[in-house]
TrEMBL record:
The lineage of its organism: Bacteria, Pseudomonadati, Pseudomonadota, Gammaproteobacteria, Chromatiales. This is Lipoprotein. It comes from Rheinheimera nanhaiensis E407-8. It comes from the Bacteria.
Length: 235
């Protein structure tokens, strides 16, 4: 009789493992901390997207950054801004002003020439602002992060997401760290000179070897959370 019970328990365990492996775990990222930073004056009207980028090691859906940009271009005007300038325009001006062979590191000392970098950046911003009347510069970078998990919850960078297994699976209360994705949001208010920075979690990476680290079907929830993360830009 005992052997049958053990066999039955073993079958349930194997079935559970098969189900967990066979089914895609849908992330459920939830923002746990929001910023309340009233740094805008109400006079900002034009947002210029400076850069949208991601770590090369992240496996993102085709057109991921383009989807993010399109959503921002559609969303920010609903929050009081008159226009959002796509990132390609800033990149074009930068290419015109900064020589392609510009070296910022000294070949002998290895020292980074911050003065030259700042001078060229200021020239790009001045020309960009003159041409597009931008009041706010916005940059986003998606990067690998490390999340701490306990049971079925992973927490990092003001967000909470579920992990691959339910809590106390087979009486195992799991704790540790796992890979995740965060987005670095950088904003420069050209009217006041103030800068705003926020690092916000996107989702836990449940399987580093998976085809996608962010599945195309999960884009709506990520775009919604990103809107919440940049809501400090609104007034």
């Amino acid at each position: 009789m005992k052997s049958k019970v053990k066999l039955g328990t073993g079958c349930v365990f194997l079935l559970s493992v098969v189900l967990l492996i066979g089914c895609r775990i849908t992330p459920e990222p939830r923002i746990t901390q929001r910023d309340h930073n009233p740094w805008v004056t109400g006079k900002e009207k034009v947002v210029g997207i400076v850069k949208l980028s991601a770590d090369k090691e992240l496996k993102l859906p085709a057109g991921f950054l383009q989807q993010v940009e399109t959503d921002l271009i559609n969303y920010l005007p609903t929050q009081g801004y008159s226009r959002v300038v796509a990132a390609e325009h800033y990149a074009k001006i930068a290419q015109q002003i900064i020589p392609e062979n510009t070296q910022f590191y000294d070949a002998v000392t290895g020292r980074f020439n911050h003065e030259l970098k700042q001078q060229l950046d200021n020239s790009v911003i001045a020309e960009y602002r003159h041409k597009y009347q931008a009041d706010v510069l916005l940059s986003l970078h998606f990067a690998k992060a490390i999340a701490e998990y306990s049971g079925d919850k992973a927490r990092w960078d003001s967000i909470e997401d579920k992990t691959a297994l339910p809590p106390n699976f087979l009486l195992d209360s799991r704790k540790g760290t796992m890979p995740a994705i965060s987005v670095h949001i950088d904003v420069h208010n050209l009217l006041t000179g103030e800068r705003y920075n926020r690092v916000q979690g996107v989702q836990a990476i449940l399987n580093w070897s998976a085809v996608y680290h962010i599945h195309p079907d999960d884009m709506p929830i990520h775009l919604q959370n990103l809107r919440i993360g940049i809501r400090q830009m609104t007034y």
